[in-house]
Amino acid sequence: MSYSGRPLPSHLRNTSHSLGGAQSSSSQSPVLVARIAEKKAELANLKELQALSAGLADQMQMLADKLNTLSDGTEAIAAVLSNWHNVLRAIHMASSKLPKPKEEDDAEKKPEAEAPLPQTLVRIPTQHAPALIPQSTSGSIAD
């Protein structure tokens, strides 16, 4: 047998000289084998735990990203809802300032009773209207 230059750890050294030869080495061999098997099982469990922990960390990171997106969306919705009061107030102001037509003139011009519409609050340019009209009619036919 060749001898390597480094000494063995104390728990792996053969203690047959001090404890009675072959009996102690044969009794320690199954103990060492069992301990090695136990350590291998522990190592396998630790590797599995490490892999599961990495997966959990990835899932938590994805959840954090989704919560950030949800938080941003909530802030946007809050901003829109805070503006609704101003929008409704502007519509009310525009509706209240409508000119009231005289009942005599209205009866002569329009026999049906229609409520007056509020003034236009938003002006939409009609430059692209001819291109949009075929799209809107084809969409309504398909529905």
Structural notes for this entry:
With 143 residues, this protein is mainly α. It is 70% helix and 0% strand. It has helices spanning 16-19, 22-96, 103-109, 129-142. The radius of gyration is 43 Å and the shape is rod-shaped. Mean pLDDT is 74; it is low at 16-23.
**N-to-C CA distance:** 91 Å
Helix content range: 55-70%
How many alpha or pi helices? 4
Report the C-alpha radius of gyration, rounded: 43 Å
Shape descriptor reads rod-shaped
Strand content: under 5%
Order of helices and strands: HHHH
Mean pLDDT: 74
Largest sheet entry: none
Number of strands: 0
Low-confidence stretches: 16-23
Q: What structural category do the secondary elements indicate? A: mainly alpha
Helices and strands, with pairings:
Elements: H1 16-19, H2 22-96, H3 103-109, H4 129-142
Describe the structure using short key phrases.
centromere; mainly alpha
What is the gist of this entry?
The chain is mainly alpha-helical. 70% of the residues lie in helices and 0% in strands.
